[in-house]
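Support request from a user on the community tier.

User writes: "When I paste my C-alpha cells into the form, the page sometimes reloads and wipes my input. The last time it worked, I copied everything first. Here is what I submitted, just in case something in the input itself triggers the reload:"
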C-alpha cells in the first residue's frame, strides 16, 4: 500500500478524485438547498393565494360556515380572541399556526354575520397584506403532512378583524429533494470512479516518457556508458525539457569523465619521465658514486615538484575551489612577479581586485614564463581599467605569436604546440590551462590574440573589487 501511494500516478489520481469529490459534494449541497428554497417559495405562493381567496370571501360578507374552502389547502380562520371560526373539511389536526383547535365555535356571538340582529354596514371588508409565513403540519383524512402556512388579516362586514391561515403541502418539495439526493448518492461514487480511472490513464500516458527516461538512466548507471542518451519525447512540455536537460547533463558528465581520464593518462605520462630519470641517476650513483650527476638530479626533482604542485592545483580547481575574496592590489602584484625577469617591462595603473593572492601569483608567473619563453627580446605587461568594473592585465611578447587555429587549443591541459622542443624547456603544458581555470574561478576570462609587435598578447580580465 505504501509503495502504491508512493507513486506520482497514485497521488495524482487520489488528489484529483478528492478535489472532484469535494466539488461535487459542495455543488450537490448548493443544488439541494436551491431546490428546497425554490419549492418552498412555490409553496408560499400557493399558500398566499389560498389565504387571499378565503380572506376575499370574508370581506365580501360570506358567512364563515358557508366559506368555500379549498380541499387541497388546509384553512383556519381565527378571531382576535384565538377562537376558531372556520376550518377546512376533514382537517383533523394542525400545528404551526398558533391555534391548534380544528373545531369551529358555534356560539351566536362568534359569527355576527349569522345573527339576524347583527348590524350590517353594507360595506365590503378590507383584506390586508400577507403578514407571516411559517412551517407546520396538518392531518387530513388521517394523513399528516408538512405544510407552509401563510397568514393574512381581513376585516369582515361586522368590522371585526380575523386571521386567515392557509397552507400548501411540502410533500412535493420533500419528494423532489429526496429524489435528487438519492440520485446524487448513487451517481457520486460512479462519477468518482470514472474520474479516478480517467486520471489514472491520463497520468500513466503523461508519465510514460518519464518512465522511459528512468529506465534509460538505470541502464546507463548499470553499464557506465555515458555515451548513451535518454529518449526525448516529441512534445514541448516539461518532460521534453527534462529529457533535453538530462542529455545535456550526460554530455557534460561524459566530457568531464573523458577529460579526467586524459588528465590521469597525461599526468602519468608526464610523471614517468622525471621519475625514470631520477631513478636512473640514483641507480648509477649507487653503483658508481663518482658518476653521480647531482645537478641533473636536483633539476629532475624540482621539475617533479613543480609538476606535482600543478597537478594538485588543477585537482583543487576541478573540485570547485574558488578565490578567498581578499582584496589584491593588481599593479603591485604584477610588479612583484615581474621583478628580476630580464626583458620584461611593466606599465601598470593602480587597480584592486578580489581573489586568492597565491592563485593570482600563479597566473601571472605562468603568463610571464610563457611570454619570456617565446619572446625574441622583450615582454610588455600592461595593467589598466576597462570601464568601472573590469581590470585588464595584458602580457605581450615579440615572438612568433599563436596561430588562429590553436588559440583555444593552447589552454587545454598537457598541450604543447612545439612538440619538438625539449620538455625541460617547454614544461608539461599545464601553465596556460591553470591560468585560464584560475581566471574562471575568479569570475574572469583569459584569451589570446595578436600583439602589436607581432607576437602573442594574453589578456586577463578580472572584476574590480
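"...and here is what came back when it finally went through:"
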Amino acid at each position: 500500500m505504501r509503495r502504491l501511494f508512493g507513486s506520482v500516478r497514485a497521488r495524482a489520481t487520489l488528489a484529483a478524485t478528492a478535489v472532484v469529490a469535494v466539488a461535487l459534494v459542495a455543488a450537490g449541497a448548493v443544488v439541494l438547498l436551491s431546490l428546497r428554497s425554490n419549492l418552498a417559495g412555490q409553496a408560499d405562493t400557493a399558500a398566499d393565494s389560498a389565504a387571499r381567496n378565503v380572506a376575499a370571501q370574508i370581506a365580501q360578507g360570506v358567512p364563515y360556515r358557508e366559506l368555500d374552502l379549498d380541499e387541497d389547502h388546509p384553512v383556519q380562520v381565527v378571531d382576535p380572541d384565538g377562537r376558531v371560526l372556520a376550518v377546512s373539511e376533514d382537517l383533523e389536526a394542525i400545528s404551526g399556526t398558533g391555534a391548534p383547535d380544528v373545531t369551529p365555535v358555534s356560539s351566536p356571538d362568534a359569527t355576527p354575520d349569522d345573527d339576524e340582529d347583527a348590524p350590517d354596514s353594507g360595506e365590503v371588508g378590507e383584506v390586508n397584506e400577507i403578514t407571516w409565513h411559517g412551517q407546520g403540519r396538518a392531518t387530513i383524512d388521517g394523513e399528516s403532512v408538512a405544510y407552509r402556512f401563510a397568514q393574512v388579516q381581513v376585516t369582515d362586514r361586522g368590522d371585526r378583524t380575523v386571521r386567515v391561515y392557509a397552507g400548501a403541502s411540502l410533500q412535493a418539495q420533500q419528494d423532489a429533494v429526496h429524489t435528487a439526493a438519492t440520485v446524487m448518492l448513487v451517481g457520486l461514487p460512479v462519477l468518482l470512479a470514472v474520474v479516478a480511472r480517467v486520471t489514472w490513464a491520463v497520468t500513466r500516458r503523461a508519465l510514460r516518457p518519464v518512465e522511459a527516461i528512468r529506465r534509460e538512466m538505470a541502464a546507463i548507471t548499470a553499464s557506465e556508458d555515458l555515451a548513451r542518451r535518454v529518449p526525448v519525447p516529441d512534445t514541448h512540455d516539461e518532460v521534453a525539457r527534462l529529457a533535453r536537460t538530462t542529455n545535456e547533463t550526460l554530455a557534460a558528465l561524459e566530457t568531464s569523465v573523458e577529460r579526467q581520464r586524459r588528465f590521469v593518462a597525461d599526468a602519468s605520462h608526464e610523471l614517468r619521465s622525471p621519475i625514470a630519470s631520477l631513478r636512473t641517476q640514483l641507480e648509477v650513483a649507487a653503483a658508481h658514486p663518482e658518476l653521480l650527476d647531482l645537478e641533473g638530479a636536483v633539476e629532475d626533482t624540482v621539475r617533479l615538484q613543480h609538476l606535482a604542485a600543478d597537478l594538485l592545483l588543477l585537482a583543487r580547481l576541478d573540485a570547485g575551489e574558488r578565490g578567498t575574496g581578499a582584496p589584491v592590489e593588481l599593479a603591485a602584484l604584477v610588479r612583484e612577479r615581474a621583478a628580476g625577469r630580464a626583458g620584461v617591462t611593466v606599465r601598470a595603473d593602480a587597480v584592486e581586485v578580489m581573489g586568492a593572492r597565491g592563485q593570482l601569483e600563479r597566473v601571472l608567473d605562468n603568463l610571464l614564463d610563457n611570454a619570456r619563453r617565446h619572446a625574441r627580446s622583450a615582454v610588455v605587461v600592461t595593467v589598466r581599467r576597462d570601464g568601472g568594473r573590469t581590470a585588464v592585465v595584458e602580457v605581450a611578447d615579440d615572438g612568433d605569436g599563436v596561430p588562429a587555429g590553436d588559440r583555444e587549443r593552447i589552454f587545454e591541459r598537457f598541450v604543447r604546440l612545439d612538440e619538438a622542443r625539449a620538455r625541460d624547456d617547454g614544461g608539461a603544458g599545464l601553465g596556460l590551462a591553470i591560468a585560464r581555470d584560475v581566471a574562471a574561478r575568479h569570475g574572469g576570462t583569459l584569451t589570446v590574440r595578436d600583439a602589436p609587435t607581432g607576437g602573442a598578447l594574453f589578456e586577463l580580465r578580472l572584476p574590480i573589487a
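Agent notes: The reload is a front-end session timeout and is unrelated to the input. The longest strand covers residues 127-140. Residues 13-176 form one domain. Escalated to web team.
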